[in-house]
Amino acid sequence: MIIGVVGKIAAGKTTVAKFFEEKGFCRVSCSEPLIDLLTHNVSSYSWIPELPEKAEPTRDKLIEFGKYLKEKYGGDILIRLAVDKKRNCKNIVIDGVRSREEIEAIKRLGGRVIYVEAGPEIRFERLMKRKAS
């Protein structure tokens, strides 16, 4: 079983993903493959599209490299990599699914997608707490 967790920033996606992890799912975020490729931490993968120059995985680098990978290898590349990384798991929950292509990839693999929602006030509070930490 593959479950993708979708929602706006600070809606509670990671909290939902952690719930599934507590129930025995392997948790992976969509950004993990980007971080792994940029830091050359690729031993968990059976394949990689290409290995970029080793770099610190800053937010800007992750966005830039993610856009590049999606343009070159398809909008579902991060899902394919995340599922490959956790290929030995029976159940996988993917945190931070963002695009239509990623949602479609999960469904193509027989998975389900959960949309997590929280009101703007709650999301704002969570974002402020994150900045304070």
Descriptive key words:
Rossmann fold; globular; single chain; alpha/beta; 16% strand; 133 residues
How would you briefly describe this protein structure?
The protein is α/β, with parallel strands linked by helices. The chain has helices at residues 13-22, 32-39, 59-73, 77-85, 100-108, 120-132; strands spanning 2-7, 26-29, 92-97, 112-116. It has a four-stranded parallel sheet with strand order 2-3-1-4, with helices on both faces.
SS element count, helices: 6
Assigned CATH superfamily: P-loop containing nucleotide triphosphate hydrolases
Q: Helix/strand-derived class?
A: alpha/beta
> Would you give the CATH topology?
Rossmann fold
Q: What is the C-alpha radius of gyration, as a whole number of Å?
A: 15 Å
Assembly type = single chain
Give an overview of the whole structure:
It is globular, with a radius of gyration of 15 Å. It has helices at residues 13-22, 32-39, 59-73, 77-85, 100-108, 120-132, and strands at residues 2-7, 26-29, 92-97, 112-116. The longest helix is centred in the middle third of the chain and has 15 residues, at 59-73. The model has no long low-confidence stretch (mean pLDDT 95). Helices cover 48% and strands 16% of the residues. A four-stranded parallel β-sheet has the order 2-3-1-4, with helices on both faces.
